[in-house]
Design brief:
single chain, 245 residues, alpha+beta, de novo design (two linked rop proteins), 5-stranded mixed beta barrel, 3-stranded antiparallel β-sheet, elongated, NA-bd_OB-fold, ARFGAP/RecO, DNA recombination, DNA repair
């Protein structure tokens, strides 16, 4: 049975002489893998089609879906949105790559996840439609939104009585726990603002230095590793840290 769904391309792997297996996060079915046949064959037509399956691409796809199979098929596809410069701007590409990799490393369920899909889509659109300083906080806010939808989030807020963020318990506390997974000082205070941002358009309004952004990115990677089994640190996190020097 065929269905029409929006999709974000996450990863492609060559298969056979001319095909691809494409991992996508779809609005209707969550994380899915699709066979795209003949797309790597010689010829101008095939070469143009490969561009549809770059990581972070936003597609409208008509797909075959069989719930008992792990590999599905794409019948038709077209751009849902054509990026202006995500693939050419160093900062935008680093942020988009981080979002894609975080989804790839955290989503496990093959089921509808419309709210999560909207957050991913909105973040990618925002990156393309805004410039440098306006997108610097997107990785931070996106990480917090992703964690919340996956079922773990920070609680409380930074105060003089609760100045320490306990990453293992996910809450602000008065004294440092023995396990040592904490965030303190200015970065703990900044996180207290970020965790209550529900609209990604407001991310730009929080003033953060690049040093603190790097510290928070590291903190969030640790937070995910503490709460998700077998979580692997996003390689793009290190790229982002370099871009934010």
């Amino acid at each position: 049975m065929t269905h029409k769904s929006k999709a974000v391309v996450l990863r492609t792997v060559k298969y056979g002489e001319s095909s691809l297996i494409v991992t996508m996060f779809t609005e209707l079915f969550g994380l899915q893998s699709y066979m795209v046949k003949g797309i790597r064959s010689s010829g101008k037509s095939a070469a143009g089609k490969i561009s549809f399956f770059q990581p972070a691409a936003l597609l409208d796809a008509e797909i075959y879906h069989n719930p008992i199979k792990h590999l599905q098929y794409i019948r038709e596809y077209q751009w849902a949105y054509i990026y202006k410069d995500v693939y050419f701007d160093v900062l935008k590409n680093a942020v988009a790559t981080y979002i894609v990799e975080m989804v790839l490393h955290t989503i496990r369920e093959e089921e509808p996840a419309q709210e999560l899909f909207e957050i991913v889509e909105n973040a990618l659109l925002y990156i393309d439609q805004h410039e440098g300083p306006q997108i610097l906080n997107i990785p931070l806010v996106f990480s917090l939104q992703l964690a919340s939808l996956l079922g773990f989030m920070f609680h409380g807020q930074y105060t003089s009585q609760t100045p320490i963020l306990d990453l293992q318990e996910g809450r602000y506390v008065q004294q440092s726990p023995q396990h040592g997974f904490t965030l303190e000082g200015e970065t703990a205070q900044i996180n207290s603002f970020l965790m209550y941002i529900n609209d990604i358009n407001l991310a730009k309004d929080v003033q953060i230095s690049n040093i603190n952004r790097r510290s928070l990115l590291k903190c969030y990677q640790q937070f995910f590793s503490l709460h998700l089994e077998n979580y692997r640190e996003a390689k793009s996190y290190q790229i982002l840290r370099t871009v934010l020097q």
